[in-house]
Amino acid sequence: MTTTIESIETIEKAAQSYRQARDRLREAVARTNAAIEAVRNEHLPTLRELLRAVAEAESRVREAVESSPREIWRTKTMTIHGIRVGWQKQRGKVEWDDEAKVIERIRKLLPPEQAVLLIRVRESVHKPAVYDLTAYDLKRLGIRISDDCDVVVVKDLSSELDRALEQVFSLIRDGDES
User: Fold this and answer.
1) In which domain, by residue range, is 141 found?
2) Quick check: is 42 in a domain?
3) Tens of pLDDT, residues 6-25
């Protein structure tokens, strides 16, 4: 039979191995982030310059369209060099001063089937507030607590590696999508 000391020694060795593996991973992530930062620093000035140039070019196209005589626009838009230019009707936005009065008018002036489509009514249990109830109240209301058992925890207390890993995984995901 395994003694308590032997169990603790086994856990200690496993935790030490885990720490060493995470430290090696942390170093690799640090090297990766340094390389990414170097590439970013190398290319960022060019990207910023190109973004400014694109914004200025778009501005010149907008100014040209705005200053052009309306007669040239038989259709509202044209495609020139793969760029769609012209005029587009804005959808507009709906506004009201008193929502309660609008709801009242909808119910009064429109058929009930249409009112159901126009008025949103939503009820739901507010879960954060439920956590404050006593076990007695939870039982009376028919609310159960699930998954509240003990589970094994293995968590590095320093979270900077996890944040760095998320950045690396994000880069990997981005690379896979392109």
Assistant:
1) 4-85+97-173
2) yes
3) 899 999 999 999 999 999 99
